[in-house]
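Lab meeting, item 3. Inverse folding demo.
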């Protein structure tokens, strides 16, 4: 996968509130799954928000946190290093999904905000890697953009936050790209304080599909949890 995240990694957690519904649904489902004992795989762990959710919801289970973007991984490593329990439970993996070497058994998989960066063939390779390692009923939690085919995405507010004397404002917009893709553009404007105004534009590619499409291509059952999050299971 291309590294779409390092250029804006310093701002990533400022848009956390946009993900709160999916993370809350993940927390509720995991907390109810007292039978999970095998490691939980977090693909695209980012700066660690889902890692923290998993750790708080499923005590004592090991977590494999996959994050190939160096800047995002730096924030993740810092967060894990601050807590003795996390240092003992969380293994940070820098590999992309086509390079993963996994244990024979997984208790669950979390893939929030990442599957749309994979082509259909890459996703098929991922299913082939994951499914033999999951027991019947073991969940794969996913979070997707709420678009199932390429469309024009009008500019929307992504973040509007103030830290100290600096104000951080971000927008997101998108347009159809080749085949099933959308070209997404985020724009961060950072102003105020004793610094010049910064404008950072970042482009990424997202393959469009829905939760039911994932169910069909993986052969799994699907249940929607929020407009953007769902769970797949055998």
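The presenter then showed the designed sequence:
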């Amino acid at each position: 996968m291309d590294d779409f995240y390092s250029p804006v990694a310093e701002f990533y957690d400022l848009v956390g509130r946009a993900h709160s519904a999916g993370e809350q649904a993940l927390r509720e489902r995991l907390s109810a799954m007292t039978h999970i004992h095998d490691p939980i795989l977090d693909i695209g762990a980012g700066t660690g928000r889902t890692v923290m959710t998993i750790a708080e919801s499923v005590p004592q289970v090991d977590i494999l946190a996959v994050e190939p973007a160096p800047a995002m991984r730096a924030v993740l490593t810092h967060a894990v290093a601050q807590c003795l329990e996390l240092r003992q439970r969380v293994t940070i993996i820098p590999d992309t999904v086509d390079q993963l070497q996994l244990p024979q058994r997984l208790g669950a998989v979390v893939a929030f905000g990442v599957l749309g960066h994979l082509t259909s063939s890459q996703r098929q390779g991922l299913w082939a890697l994951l499914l033999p390692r999951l027991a019947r009923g073991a969940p794969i939690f996913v979070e997707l953009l709420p678009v199932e085919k390429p469309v024009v995405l009008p500019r929307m507010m992504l973040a509007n936050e103030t830290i100290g004397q600096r104000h951080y404002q971000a927008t997101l917009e998108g347009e159809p790209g080749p085949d099933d893709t959308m070209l997404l553009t985020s724009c961060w404007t950072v102003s105020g304080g004793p610094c010049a105004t910064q404008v950072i534009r970042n482009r990424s590619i997202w393959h469009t599909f829905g939760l039911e499409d994932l169910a069909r291509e993986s052969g799994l059952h699907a249940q929607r949890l929020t407009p953007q999050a769902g769970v797949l299971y055998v």
